[in-house]
């Protein structure tokens, strides 16, 4: 199995190389604070439990397989980039009934996913 190539840490001015977004030095600090704040202040308990459910995990895996693990937005621009996130096209908060529809999901890289969420005002 091929290994991912190392790249610089996502923290500006950190030159440590890593296969993840953050190096070991910054990973706990960045993820721990972000995840805690996001789950505490932006997600309701129903949505949080949905993202931890077995049904979501299975559907997420199916979406990755369908999209061959590639970011669909980058692919439209003829760029091959590994997907990191499965995104709900119609957000869970907007239409709870579409949360488990495979047609409502697309695999994205973090950059494309963040760009989408920066365009939409927080709800």
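^ structure tokens above, recovered residues below v
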């Amino acid at each position: 199995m091929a290994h991912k190539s190392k790249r610089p840490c996502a923290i500006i001015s950190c030159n440590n190389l890593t296969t993840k977004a953050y190096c070991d030095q910054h990973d706990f600090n960045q993820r721990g604070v972000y995840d805690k704040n996001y789950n505490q202040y932006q997600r309701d308990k129903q949505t949080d439990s949905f993202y931890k459910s077995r049904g979501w995990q299975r559907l997420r895996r199916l979406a990755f397989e369908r999209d061959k693990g590639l970011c669909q937005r980058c692919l439209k621009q003829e760029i091959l980039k590994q997907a990191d996130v499965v995104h709900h096209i119609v957000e869970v908060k907007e239409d709870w009934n579409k949360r488990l529809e495979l047609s409502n999901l697309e695999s994205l890289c973090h950059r494309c996913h963040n760009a989408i969420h920066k365009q939409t005002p927080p709800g």
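The beta strands are 7-8, 17-18, 85-88, 105-108.
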